Amino acid sequence: MIDSVLLFASLGLMVVGLPWSFYLGLLAVLSWRRSRPLPDDAPVHFTFVVPAHNEELGIAGTVENLRGVVDYPQNRYDVVVVADNCSDGTAAAAESAGARVMVRHNQELRGKGYALEHAFDRLMEEGRTDAFVIVDADTQVKPNILRAFAACLGRGEICAQAEYRVANVDASWRTRLMSISMAAICEVRASARENLGVSAVLRGNGMCFSRRLLEQHRHQAYGLVEDVEFAADLALAGVRVAYAHETAVYGEMVSTAKEAVSQRKRWEGGRVQLALDKVPKLLGGYLRTFQLVKLDLAMELLIPPLSTVAAVVGLGVGVEAVRLFAGFALAGEAHVAGMLREVSGQVTLWLWLAGLASIVLYVLRGVALSGLGFFRGLWTLGWAPVFVVWKVLFARGGKKQQEWVRTTREAEKSDD
């Protein structure tokens, strides 16, 4: 009876945890990177679009970075800042730093998605831009960003995503852990999907949209995770997001628990709303067309947080361990041969161990791509249980929100 109860518990957990652990392990295996040459020159005219809401303190640094470090002809790209519903000096600071500024005021329609739509509509009418690169107001870019996107466009892609990395890695243990998490989510998964020919998924920062894309698919994503929402809309239309792993953007992440709670609730709340809306459509679209880009995007929206998958797999291994040792005790087999026979017969135990190995492989691949170094990365992973407890106790769920809620920057906290 004890064995049967534990077996049913193990099988129940297996249905929830093992498919996702094997899926993540497969992505880690497939996440190698192909070397691709970048053009020294390209006829593409780009426009950086920087949506900003009350970013007076940091917007000048972002504009100066875009103007000063990008190794692309200055006459072939522009920098446009959308000062959206700002109550500070964001517009003046951006203009002084050399950006063209679009000021938008609309108390009804608030948020990053509306700011982007406003910029795209005006810039598309002007007809000067071949492709748009979206970066956040707290971002620094790798100098080769426009050459990398030009290479993507030259290969026939119409939408692409750069690597998304943490700029303030050393601000706290939270940002170091975030650098591993983002390497796993934004690099391991994206590299594997690029090799599979499906969508790398948009990440909100470091996105490239060609003019042709926006002519065919107007940007109308307004939710809290407008980037994934637009990626889902593109997948429904059969359009994939290419991954430009040759370049990167570096965004500032929150380093304190107070700001992290607010941000996490917004992200998770928005993702749940989006999954409820888009997953049925994506799965239905896949069954009609058998386009993998639709199925893969649905899986991206459905996959639980890594902490949840790891907890389920760990619990499954624990249940199997109890079941195994209970079998030892009941059988009275103490000699080595008997123990080996008992272990070899536990098929479910080996499946759980394979799932655990898949998660370890996925996490280690994230460590390898995070830039922290192996030993520092492993030390940082020691904070993972603290993060999981914090998330369960303080950062679950959240109220439904649509408007732009700005996150406090590091420079502001140091001034307080």
Task: Please explain how this structure is put together.
The chain is of the alpha/beta class and 416 residues long. It contains 16 helices and eight strands. It has an eight-stranded mixed sheet with strand order 3-2-1-4-7-6-8-5, with helices on both faces. Strand 2 (77-84), helix 3 (90-96) and strand 3 (100-104) form a beta-alpha-beta unit. It is elongated and about 75 Å long.
Topology:
Blueprint: H1 2-29, E1 46-52, H2 59-68, E2 77-84, H3 90-96, E3 100-104, H4 112-126, E4 131-134, E5 139-141, H5 145-154, E6 159-166, H6 173-196, E7 207-210, H7 211-216, H8 226-236, E8 242-251, H9 257-289, H10 292-302, H11 306-331, H12 336-344, H13 347-370, H14 374-381, H15 384-394, H16 410-415
Parallel strand pairs: 1-2, 1-4, 2-3, 6-8
Antiparallel strand pairs: 4-7, 5-8, 6-7
